[in-house]
Records
---
Amino acid sequence: MDWANGVLKLSSFFAVTIGILVLFVGRRLNKMFAPLREFSIPEPVTGGILFSVLIAVVYVVADIEIEFDLMARDILLVYFFTTIGINASLKDLLKGGIPLVVLLAITIGYMLVQNFTGISVAAMFGLDSAVGMLGGSVSLIGGHGTAIAWAPRISEGFGISNAMEIGIACATFGLILASLMGGPIAKFLITRYDLKPDHKEQLDVGVADESQNGDGTITGFDFLDAIFAIHVCAILGFILNETIAELGLQLPLFVTCLFAGIVITNLVPDAYPRISGTKWPSRKPAIALIADVSLGTFLAMSLMSMQLWTLVDLAGPIFAILGAQFIVAIVVNIFIVFPVMGKNYDAAVVCAGFGGISLGSTPTAMANMSAVSQRYGNSHQAFIIVPLVCAFFIDLANALIIPYFLANF
């Protein structure tokens, strides 16, 4: 903890501690208010938005700015995506091949629509098309990371001095809208078409209240074995990430850890002897529990650390752009993604995830699907294809789409 010039800087230890508190508060609020449960609003979203508002109030009233060291948050993201890789079998990947390609094609098409929408609304305010791009795939599909990476180039190339602020503002409000969109869309589709899972599946993220492993318990060694497996995959993912970086391709660490989990899971035979004396922990309750805790804490820390007071001056045009993007995202989700993906329960869960992809981030998509799955039933197919689309292919596509639009519009 450090205090200087009206800024209170909290270390990773405090940030994680408060993140856990945010999760508890979000869980309590979701239990207290039925609409939050009915529309499958993720618990970290409920608590995270509340805390970000409280922190903004502290800033406005007491002129105290609170900053968090979020290094531990990024480690939690690596944990989460590694668990997704560990749960992915080659059989499921092959089964999800066609839906994955279809969802990727829809998403790339949507990215083009998203950029045209942002540019069109920006033009209505007499703003440069680059501002519309900042309110398009740069910050929404791309998220904070892509916005931060492209803002300096847009600022220099188009003379937009506040490009960074616009990009971060769009990414921040987009994250909130994405967090609130996925659950209600899935509920609408599930209720309207009376959808149910084809068969009961163990949750990919989280553990149901009733027993999933016979006696309803996860032993200390079950948990430790899962942690060990995650670390083994993360080490391979780190090596893979460094190797790819030397070849000139930069990928987020969590992406290579996801693939490392997939590779190891599908190379280790079930009967292979392990020092723990148990099988590889793919789809075990301990893995699902770690996935739930790491994702929830990551998202809680992301939302609670938003500095909402920095966005007030940019409200007008940004809200107009985001309002249009929100409407477009809902229309595409309900009238294109759902029917094309099969108009079944899996498609409804994918729509919850697409709500997170369209305006937010990969973790938001996963949190949306997790909230829906814990209420209505799991969709393993959705948890395979959505992270592969939005954690890997989207970044590659966006890296080509952004410079094309900036050069031609």
Note: Strands lie at 2-4, 7-10, 65-68.
---
Amino acid sequence: MPETTVPHAAASSFATAQVQAGYTAGAVSHTAIPPIYQSNAFEFTSLTQARELFALQREGDIYSRAANPTVSVFEQRIAALEGGIAAAGVASGQAAVALALLALVGRGGHIVAAAQLYGGTVDLLTDTFPDWGIETTLVDQDDPQAWRDAVRPETRAFFGESVANPIAQVLDVRTVADIAHAAGVPLVIDNTVATPYLQRPREHGADIVVHSATKFLGGHGSSLGGAVVDLGTFDFTAEPAKWPQLTLSYARVPGKSLVERFGASGSPYISLVKTKYSHDLGPSLSAFNAFQLLQGMESLDLRMGRHSASAQKVAEHLATLPAVAAVHHPGLADNRWNALGAQYLPRGNASVFSFDLVSTGDPEADFAAVETFISRLRVLRLVANIGDARSLVAHPASMTHSHMTPQQLSDAGIAWTTVRLSIGLEDADDLIADLDQALAAA
């Protein structure tokens, strides 16, 4: 049955008019920018259309928890920027990591992940996932043999960050991707800090990318959002017994598997993320937030160039100061990841990095010194976020990574003297002056 707009009779009473007058479902307005489809649900042209949509026999919008036209634009845009074939927009970066891995691993599965990760991701992998029968082995991301040794028969994913938060370790994506593929599993990369402007992990062998769009993609610090992107490089049919959720009959597609339904024209994996995990658990990206994130993405390349250049300048200055024991920025010639930064981030290094104050040897005294330093800052803001237009400072050991054990902190390169910076779009000289006066006081 052809799709048409749904006509309605003229309102016959005040109560009906106040609800329905002036709008016809399906009416087209040729807006120059993506509009905000701020609607919980969508009207069907017929019951036949509704049945086919619910059975995944045709594509379309049913309810904004599962799909929304504004969110669809966001999904298509981030997929294009990453060179992927499809994407799922979700409510946050944390939701993106969780759903991306849940769709791969399933109950009883196993993940091999870098030890150098954002603290909230470590919480997810080592505290929440075990509640669901999912185990994770954390390895030193710079040790290829550790990745190989951690593989089990039930391993279903490798996971790492292209640029780690907060120490800015640069992952050797190609090496880790090759090890993952030798084990028959995909490599999932959190590309939040680098963004697709500084690095496209697909070009180095990665299979799936996740983002906290809350950060640099949006850039304005006003809207939460996340994305899971299928880069289209992993063949789930090569070992179909490993991926029954994709290759066996799927109850929500009567009589077919997701590979049979979407393998030729889309992404079976993203269809699983959307129709099961996002649909059932409900971490949906709102239309309004998708619209705001799209506004930010329009200037991504311009902003990332400024972020990167300013961060390089700030890092070089910090490295000259006697109050600073170490600067963890791959753009510095003596940094351990300098060569990997040149290889994987040719347009410039990321603007999230850390430095260490000189330690007293006592954690409480070190915390007091960091607190004194941060309290003196006037331009940089104490905020638990990164990727904002504003420059931000945080203390990982007591904030973003505070749930980690002392060994996990050490493995991630984090000390009580470690201070994380996210360099924004202000004048770099103003940031340097602010850091100088605060360090003098500390």
Note: The mean pLDDT is 93.
